[in-house]
Design brief:
Oligomer: single chain
Largest sheet: 7 strands, mixed
Strand order of the largest sheet: 1-3-4-2-5-6-7
CATH topology: Rossmann fold
CATH class: Alpha Beta
Strand content: 15-25%
Number of strands: 7
Distance between the termini: 28 Å
Radius of gyration: 16 Å
Bound molecules: guanosine-5'-triphosphate, magnesium ion
Number of domains: 1
Length: 204
């Protein structure tokens, strides 16, 4: 269960993020895939993270405190075509630094649009995470937009792609910000890891 989610701070620099004393879960994926919507769905607060029909809405690293126990982080999306080379390079630097150097990062949820067959840019990003030892879980988004069988087919194709790169498929969830599909499962998954974090870091 989630009781209270509060916005803390927005940054371009991981060094200015809140002190890494709580386990952290970040949400990333292609621009417009539904990261901010999913965060709002999990928090049960439609006004929390800014949502837009136009890609490129989220441009900063946004920290939210959940029940004083963990951080939820909304990240800017990748693959937004209408961006200058300089902006793309800035994004890459900011995100790569954050993902590789943020010490309390438990899991990066990579959001994948369930309406599409596997996209190269997602596969490459996940591969990069793997190479850098960054733990990844997949969230297939917008499952309300097509039939269950279409979603299952796209999910299967994506998981097959994962098996070409890794020995095992990452943990994954099928979600919809519209219907709240997957909400309980994702929250339980996070909360299990939050409990483990505090158990392992208990002062004796
Ligand atoms: P950037 O911040 O620009 O990278 O985008 P984002 O990934 O945060 O996407 P955002 O949450 O802003 O959503 C983009 C668009 O998709 C909005 O118009 C949302 O209303 C819509 N959307 C997001 N999730 C869902 C979903 O589960 N179902 C449906 N039907 N629409 C969704
Ligand atoms: Mg966003």
């Amino acid at each position: 269960m989630i009781k209270s989610v509060k916005f803390i701070i927005s940054n371009t620099d991981f060094r200015k993020c809140p002190s890494p004393d709580k386990p952290e879960f970040a949400f990333i994926g292609r621009s417009n895939v539904g990261k901010s919507s999913l965060i709002n769905m999990l928090a049960n607060n439609k006004g929390l993270a800014k949502i837009s029909g136009t890609p490129g809405k989220t441009q900063l690293i946004n920290h939210f405190d959940v029940d004083g126990r963990w951080y939820m982080v909304d990240l800017p999306g990748y693959g937004f075509a209408k961006v200058s080379k300089t902006m793309r390079e800035e994004w890459e630097k900011m995100i790569r630094q954050y993902l590789t150097l943020r010490e309390n990062l438990e899991v990066v949820f990579v959001l994948v649009d369930s309406r599409h067959t596997p996209q190269q840019i997602d596969v490459e990003f996940i591969y990069w995470c793997g190479q850098n030892g960054i733990p990844v879980a997949l969230l297939f988004t917008k499952a309300d937009k097509q039939s269950k069988s279409k979603t299952s087919l796209n999910v299967k194709k994506f998981l097959d792609k994962m098996l070409e790169l890794f020995e095992e498929v990452p943990d994954y969830f099928v979600t919809s910000a519209e219907t709240s599909m997957g909400r309980e499962d994702v929250i339980s998954y996070i909360q299990e890891q939050v409990s483990d974090f505090y158990q392992n870091n208990q002062q004796s």
